[in-house]
Structure formats: structure tokens, C-alpha cells
Amino acid sequence: MTDIKTQVQGLDSNVQARDVTSIAAKTGNIYESLNIVAKRANQLAIDIKQELHSKLDEFAVSSDTIEEVQENKEQIEISKFYERLPNPVIIALNEFMTDQIHYHYKNQTEESAE
Questions:
Q1: 106: helix, coil or strand?
Q2: How confident is the model at residue 5 (pLDDT cuts 50, 70, 90)?
Q3: ∠ CA(1), CA(49), CA(61), 5° rounding?
Q4: Rounded to the nearest 10 degrees, what angle do helices 30-57 and 73-84 cross at?
Q5: CA–CA separation, 15 and 18 (whole Å)
Q6: What is the tens place of the pLDDT at every residue in 47-87?
Q7: For residue 80, what are the CA distances in angstroms to 43, 55, 94, 100?
Q8: Is the pLDDT assigned to residue 1 strictly greater than 50?
Q9: Domain span at residue 85?
Q10: Which DSSP helix (H) or strand (E) runs through 84?
Q11: How many CB atoms lie within 10 A of CB 49?
């Protein structure tokens, strides 16, 4: 798995219209293609969330009062970077269209094993 920073390099974070037939052509069915993209997007969202929380936990300071909140410029920059990242669905769809996602069907692997 590559780092998310290098993975989204040069990827437009804006939503774009996509050709549905080219998406469906990968699997032969638009619903299967979108299911694959959705599952990968969920994986990416979880990975990004865990990565962000692990980086922000480095700055966590346990204090007893709420009034002692301090602003940390590095923490703000990290948060801004993750806010600017493309949506996980955009990343997953790009991976799917460039054949970077490996997928298989459970039923076919179970039948071939018998």
C-alpha cells in the first residue's frame, strides 16, 4: 500500500462527470463496478481517518481545564492537508479506472476450489 500523499499527487479533487459505459466495461455491470469502487472508498476513508488521528495524537496534551487549549501550527497544517485531499470515492474511482484495484468474486473462488 502506498502513502496517501503520493497516491493522490496530481489528482483533481473536484467532482467530474464520468463516462458510465467505461466504468461498466471493466466488469460488464455498472452495479458491480460501483460496488467495487464503494468498498475501496470505505477502505480508503478508514485508512485516512486512522492516519489523521495517529498524526494528531502526537500533539495531544492532556490537560484538566478546557481553557488551556493551545493552537499548534503543525497540527493546523496537517488538518488542512487532510481537508484538501480528494474524496475517497474520487481516489477509489481513479484507482479502478487505472486498474490499480485487484478484486475477485467470492462465489467464483469457492466454486473453483470444489
A1: helix
A2: low
A3: 120
A4: 180
A5: 9
A6: 989 988 888 888 776 655 555 556 678 888 888 888 888 88
A7: 21, 13, 22, 27
A8: no
A9: 14-62+69-105
A10: helix 73-84
A11: 12
pTM: 0.75
Given a contact cutoff of 8 angstroms between Cβ atoms, the answer to whether 4 and 48 are in contact is yes
**Number of independent structural domains in the chain:** 1
Residue 3 resides in a domain = no
Cell, residue 16: 467530474
Cell digits for 25?
466495461
Residue 86 DSSP symbol: P
CB 55 within 8 A of CB 21: no
Quick one: which of 7, 26, 14 has its CA closest to 99?
26
**Is 27 strand, coil or helix?**
coil
Rounded to whole angstroms, the Cα distance separating 110 from 86 reads 36
Residue 29, domain member (yes or no): yes
In a domain, residue 56? The reply is yes
Residue 8 covered by a domain:
no
Write down the residue that cell numbers 493551545 correspond to: 70
Helix (H, G, I), strand (E, B) or coil at 6: helix
Rounded CA gap, 103 and 15, in Å?
Answer: 24
